What we know:
Layout: H1 2-21, E1 25-28, E2 55-57, E3 77-79, E4 91-94, E5 111-118, E6 134-141, E7 154-159, E8 165-171, E9 180-185, E10 198-205, E11 213-221, E12 234-236, H2 252-257, H3 259-262, E13 266-273, E14 279-281, E15 284-289, E16 294-300, E17 304-306, E18 310-317, E19 332-339, E20 353-360, E21 373-377, E22 385-393, E23 397-405, E24 417-425, E25 434-443, E26 453-464, E27 467-475, E28 486-489, H4 495-498, E29 499-502, E30 507-509, E31 515-516, E32 518-522, E33 543-545, E34 552-556, E35 563-568, E36 573-578, E37 583-585, E38 592-599, E39 605-612
Antiparallel strand pairs: 1-21, 2-11, 3-4, 4-11, 5-10, 6-9, 6-11, 7-8, 7-10, 12-13, 13-18, 14-17, 15-16, 15-19, 19-20, 21-28, 22-27, 22-29, 23-26, 23-32, 24-25, 24-27, 28-31, 29-30, 33-34, 34-37, 35-36, 35-38, 38-39
Amino acid sequence: MKLLSTITSALFLIVLFVLQAAAQEIVVPLTHNPAYDSPDVKPFKSKTQRASLPFIDDFSYQGPYPDASLWQDNKAYINNTMSASPLTRGVATLDGLNQYGRPYFAQPYNSGLADSLTSVPIDLSSYTNLDSIYLSFFYQPQGLGFAPESGDSLFLYFKNNLNQWVRMWQVRGTPLQGFKIVVLPVMDAQYLHSGFQFRFVNIASLNINDDVWNLDYVKMAVKRTETDTVMKDVAFSVEPSSILKNYSSMPYRHFIANQSNELSSSQAVFINNLDGTPHAVIPALTAKEFISSSAINTQTLPSVTIAAKSYMQQTFMSYPINYVAPTNTSKVVLRNTYYYPPVSPTDRKANDTIVKDAVFDNYFAYDDGSAEKSYFLLPAINYPSKTALQFKLNEADTLRGLMVHFGAQVPAALGKYFSIVLYKSLGSNGIPDSIIAQEDLLRVQYEPSYNGFSSYAFSSPTMLDSGTYYIGITQPANFGSDSIYYGLDVNTNTSLQHLAYNVDGTWFSSTISGSVMMRPIVGQHVIPTAVSPPVKIETADLQLFPNPVQDLMYVTSSESYTSCRIYSINGELLRKAAITNHSIDLHLLNPGTYILTFTDAKGTTISKKINKY
């Protein structure tokens, strides 16, 4: 099966390449999930206690890890971006990336057992088959990722009283389908013991987030039947729409300068009734500026009845935003919290509230910050590869640079050269491009601490009048097949309207569904990712111990450090780590050798080599 799956994966990539090469825009699976890289992500530590019935998880919480009180392992990716029409907000995604968001194997075309989602032990020793215990769950192949092939199956195992894992159910991969429910009995005597567990496992390509499966609303309870497909719950499902019409994020001063054109007319929320009876809900909204806690708006919609096993869209009308920012360049976060009172005693409160932030900072963004796929260009011989993203200034401003989410690739693009180009207009019909500024000899960097975005600055900031401009990346001609990968957000769809590409001397409008993750930076001075501060020679002043280290490393120094950067031995930036109480938590690192770099208040750095076991 492994050989067949390997051949199938290879053929899939070849067919994908042939079909897309004519269009020159290529979309491929991710080889790295940056959601795990943020320093805000806490290490996963499963609880030691046993769970009890009813066991319910609809994954309506902040990921990327599963709820440690319910699940024993951390390989499933909890998110609200990889599924199509989920039952409730949040799903568990199984693919070919591990618990660090990285490939299980770096070599292409390897396939085998990949992610797992294993329950903590559940004490069933006091139950009998008369209690009629059933386990149900919903599954979906592909979602918003890439479909699992027929050999890339999803399995479910039960752990019996002999400590053996017994396969109870499986399904082969297919193209995208809606969520389907599976209901299985847990009544055989071999499963009614104090350490019962169940486990989902998938077979996938082990070097990319290909072969995607999504799981939603896992429930195990007594007094059920095989026809019990009713979840007595009403829940929010997909993300609410944005309060912004043209962007997902923009500078607040540009928003205020033309609020009537930048504000969307309404925001839509989607509420799903999973119960077998109708329910009346009263949707409500509170809006505030999150940083200052300033109240902005409140709304309550009339009561509406949602039919059994159906969903309904509710619309909140946009409201005027009169908040005055502290300064012209202040960051502003407008937080919309949508909610409704619980509709019944069994209604799960966690999915009765959903939050949507509109961030106003020093950049323009079309993407939502999450990459589900990678995008790259296939140029003609002797031609450079160019992208150009359209954006509009509502008032005069200073263009500082570009934020880019580079997609990980094998071999790594780290250090590849490119240029950032700012255009007033793109050439056509023999008229050349109107180039305002260009910054050359920039190199690909990966910045895990800011949702995977790296910042690049122009040497000389450019003052621009209000109006429409284009900014993008040019990769030199004849660089081989190693194009630079960009993150592609598939939950928004703006590349069709705002992205252009050029691979043979002519500009074309993008035909890719999604948003390529590039963000022009304006306003105040920025510190680019690619700038390396002066390196301070290692001295005895900074000491790390123990070394080798297992989990917690301690830092002693006369300087005050609050964070450090962790690099692989090959120089790849892996993540930023916080220094708390003079210690660094290295729990998430795989065993190996790493370089830790510390930067003091003067901008000088000191680097130390460590070994993790």
